[in-house]
Each structure stands twice: as structure tokens, then as C-alpha cells.
């Protein structure tokens, strides 16, 4: 079999197993095993062990269970409910009202965690129960979380940005700065769609909150203070360089426990439930990460990503035709690979093509990260779909369907930064001067 036929076979096998109800992580691992055992000369047993170890034995990954635990504490001690109570009066006249908290929460939390999975899982744990209780449409809430959760890899600091900068031999600081405006643009697009949907579907919005005076709003806003202080402290610790993302996650857990105890909402029962819930969610995510890492090894051994990139190079396309073709290639790869693997496995072939076509490598980095965000919500291996599937009990295809409008917002954002590359380059150029 040729390489592309092998890729098609593995993709079909994956779809059959997922539709048959096989666990997601097991599906990824089995497809990786079949690919290595039958189409390469590698040792699948040894590679399975190394992939599972390497994907989880990471200091940076330690932030994931800690941030999830922080979300569990906020959820189970009703600190999150207090936060929504404080926000509700201020957003009462804004189309979409509390729906916007998912976008804002993912944007703020994504800037702290740097992880799509941690952002999606934590904000979902805090916001979904509160929105559902108030009668908000669950489909819009889940769809916005699936896509806005990807802001964790676009708004710096981001592990994916670091990997790209190393692969492209580009400035890490410059690509961090380049992510701010596209991240803000994407948040505005998401919120804009929510506002438009809420105006068009007023009958599916909950009953208006009772009108409140400015004094009453200020009084209710006292509920925002504990969680707001915790978020500001975590963000400031990271921005000021006092702590790494993992250390910030630890501060977040300690701060959430302290706030819950101070508000007399912390009990031994909800402490145990929060710890158990975070352990379950973290193990689920890490198991999927391990399966994806093993499948990535299989893709590397078979040479499928390199074959796709070389096929594009052989076509000798014009610059924008090249970009359009690379969009298709990365979308195909996104159905079977995680974002970091997509970048690492194609960098050697794609980067020279991009430089030869005259594109700025910093701009292309943000372009690729937006494509990685799309991959996070693209079946069958859309990682955020898996996270929300396990948290809500809903089928990943239903979650993907709910995310389609927000998926289109991502496409619009890619179109805008392609038409107006200054959206990406203006901030790093102003701060660090124009690159040579």
C-alpha cells in the first residue's frame, strides 16, 4: 500500500471504532498499534510504552490537573454561582447576557493556562451548570465552550507557540506578542455571533433578570470579588514573572481552597468530591493524550504528514494558492493528529515553502495555530470534543454540530488575518521593531 492509502485505511478504522463505542484513547492507541505492526518495521510494544510515558511525564502537564481541581473547587463550593450572580445584573441589557461569560472566561483563563484542554475543562465545569440552571440554551453554551476553549493555545503564553517558534527558528517573544490581537479578534467574533443568535432567537433565551438599580448592582457585585481577586492574582503572577504556569495552577488551587474556607462553603464532603472529580477528568484527558501521542508516532513512522507536505510542494503553487492548499492539508491532518504533532511533523518541509513564497514566519505561526484550533473541534480526533463529551455525556458529533457556527468564526478569523496580515504583525513590530 502507498502512504496515502495507509492513512485512509487508519482513518476509516478509527471512524469504525469510534462509531462502535470503543473508548477514545483505546481507539487512538489501537489505530497506532495496527499502523506500526502492519505498515512499518518498528516495535509497537516499545513505542506504546515510550509514547505513554513521554506524553504524561511532563512538568508543564502538571498544570492540567491543578487547574481542573481549581475549577472543581469553584463549582462544588458555589463560588462560581456567586460569580454568576454578581455578573448577571451588569450583562442584563447585553444581547446574549451570561453566554458571554464562557468567551470571556476562556479568554482570561487561556492566557493563564496555555492549554486548550485545561481551559475547556475548567470553564465548562464552572459555567455549564450555572447557565443550565438559569435556563440558557445548552447547545450554544457547549458549542461556544468547545471553540472558545481553544483560546488557550492562541493567547500567550502557549506551549504550541513555543513549539512552533523552535521549529521555525523564530522569536518566541515576537510570536507571543503576535497572538494578542488575533485572540481578541476571535473573542469578538464569538461574542458577536452569540449576540446575533440571541436577538434572532429571543424565545430560546431565559426570562429577563429583574431590573436593578446601580446601587443594587454594586451590592450584588460583592459576589464577584473573591473569584476576581483569585483570577487577577494568578494572571499577575504569570505576567510579572513571579511564577510559571504550573506554579500559578498550584496558587489557584490554594487560593480557591482558602476562599471556599473563608466563605464557609468548604466541607470535607465537597473537598473529597472535588478531588475525585478532578482526578477522573485529568486521567481521562491524560489517557487520550497518551493514545494521541502513540498515533502520532505511527504517523511519523509511516511518513504520512511529510508525504502530504511534499505533494503540496511539488505542485509549485502561487503564494495564496499555496496557503489555500496548506489549509486543506492541515485540516486533514487535524482529523488524526494533535496540534503540536502537526507542527513538528510538517515543519521541515513547510517552512522553506513559506519563506520561499515570501510570507512572514511570525504571521504563518498564528495562521497555523488558528488551524490547530480548528483541529481541536474537528471530528474524529477533536480534543475539545472529547473533553466536553466526557464532561456532559453527550455524543461528540452533537457537540461538533453545536460548535459549527463558532467553527465558522475561526474560518472568518483566518480569512481576516490573511487579508490583513497587520492584525498579526503590528503588535510585535511596535514593541520590538520590524523584523529583518
Structure description:
The protein has 436 residues and is an all-alpha fold. The chain has 22 helices and no strands. Helix 20 runs antiparallel to helix 21. It is globular and about 70 Å long.
Strand and helix map with partners:
Blueprint: H1 3-19, H2 24-39, H3 44-56, H4 63-76, H5 79-87, H6 100-113, H7 116-133, H8 138-148, H9 159-168, H10 172-178, H11 180-200, H12 214-220, H13 225-239, H14 245-262, H15 268-302, H16 304-313, H17 319-334, H18 339-356, H19 361-376, H20 383-392, H21 396-419, H22 422-432
Helix pairs in contact: 1-2, 2-15, 3-15, 4-7, 4-14, 4-15, 6-7, 6-8, 6-11, 6-13, 7-8, 7-20, 8-21, 9-18, 9-19, 10-22, 11-21, 13-14, 15-20, 16-17, 16-18, 17-19, 18-19, 19-21, 20-21
Task: Determine the strand fraction and express it as a percent band.
Answer: under 5%
How many helices in DSSP terms? 22
Computed CA radius of gyration, to the nearest angstrom: 22 Å
* Outline: globular
What is the typical, i.e. mean, pLDDT?
78
Q: Tell me the number of strands.
A: 0
The helix fraction, in percent, is over 70%
Uncertain residue ranges: none
Descriptors:
mainly alpha, 436 residues
Quick rundown:
The protein is mainly α.
Amino acid at each position: 500500500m502507498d502512504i496515502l492509502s495507509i492513512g485512509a485505511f487508519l482513518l476509516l478504522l478509527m471512524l469504525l471504532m469510534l462509531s462502535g463505542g470503543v473508548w477514545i484513547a483505546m481507539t487512538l492507541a489501537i489505530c497506532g498499534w495496527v499502523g506500526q505492526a502492519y505498515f512499518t518495521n518498528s516495535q509497537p510494544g516499545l513505542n506504546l510504552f515510550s509514547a505513554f510515558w513521554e506524553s504524561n511525564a511532563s512538568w508543564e502537564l502538571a498544570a492540567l490537573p491543578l487547574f481542573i481541581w481549581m475549577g472543581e473547587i469553584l463549582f462544588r463550593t458555589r463560588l462560581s454561582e456567586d460569580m454568576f450572580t454578581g455578573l448577571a445584573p451588569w450583562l442584563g441589557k447585553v444581547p446574549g447576557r451570561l453566554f458571554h461569560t464562557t468567551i470571556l472566561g476562556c479568554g482570561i483563563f487561556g492566557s493563564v493556562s496555555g492549554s486548550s484542554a485545561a481551559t475547556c475543562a475548567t470553564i465548562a465545569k464552572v459555567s455549564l451548570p450555572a447557565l443550565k440552571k438559569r435556563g440558557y440554551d445548552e447547545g450554544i453554551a457547549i458549542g461556544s465552550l468547545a471553540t472558545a476553549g481553544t483560546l488557550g493555545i492562541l493567547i500567550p503564553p502557549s506551549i504550541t507557540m513555543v513549539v512552533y517558534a523552535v521549529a521555525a527558528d523564530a522569536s518566541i517573544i515576537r510570536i507571543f506578542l503576535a497572538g494578542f490581537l488575533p485572540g481578541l479578534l476571535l473573542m469578538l467574533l464569538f461574542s458577536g455571533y452569540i449576540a446575533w443568535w440571541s436577538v434572532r432567537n429571543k424565545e430560546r433565551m431565559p426570562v429577563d433578570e429583574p431590573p436593578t438599580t446601580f446601587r443594587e448592582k454594586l451590592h450584588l457585585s460583592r459576589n464577584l470579588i473573591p473569584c476576581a481577586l483569585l483570577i487577577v492574582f494568578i494572571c499577575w503572577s504569570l505576567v510579572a514573572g513571579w511564577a510559571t504556569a504550573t506554579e500559578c495552577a498550584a496558587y489557584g488551587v490554594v487560593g480557591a481552597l482558602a476562599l471556599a474556607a473563608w466563605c464557609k462553603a468548604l466541607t470535607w464532603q465537597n473537598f473529597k468530591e472535588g478531588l475525585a472529580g478532578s482526578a477522573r477528568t485529568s486521567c481521562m484527558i491524560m489517557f487520550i493524550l497518551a493514545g494521541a501521542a502513540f498515533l502520532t508516532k505511527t504517523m511519523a513512522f509511516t511518513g504520512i504528514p511529510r508525504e502530504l507536505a511534499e505533494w503540496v510542494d511539488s505542485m509549485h503553487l502561487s503564494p495564496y494558492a499555496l496557503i489555500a492548499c496548506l489549509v486543506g492539508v492541515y485540516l486533514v491532518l487535524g482529523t488524526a493528529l494533535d496540534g503540536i504533532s502537526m507542527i513538528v511533523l510538517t515543519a521541515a518541509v513547510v517552512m522553506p515553502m513559506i519563506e520561499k513564497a515570501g510570507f512572514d514566519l511570525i504571521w504563518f505561526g498564528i495562521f497555523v495555530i488558528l488551524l490547530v484550533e480548528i483541529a481541536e473541534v474537528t471530528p474524529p480526533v477533536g480534543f475539545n470534543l472529547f473533553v466536553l463529551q466526557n464532561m456532559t455525556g453527550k455524543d461528540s458529533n452533537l457537540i461538533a454540530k453545536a460548535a459549527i457556527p463558532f467553527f465558522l468564526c475561526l474560518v472568518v478569523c483566518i480569512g481576516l488575518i490573511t487579508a490583513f496580515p497587520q492584525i498579526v504583525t503590528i503588535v510585535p513590530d511596535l514593541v520590538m521593531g520590524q523584523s529583518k
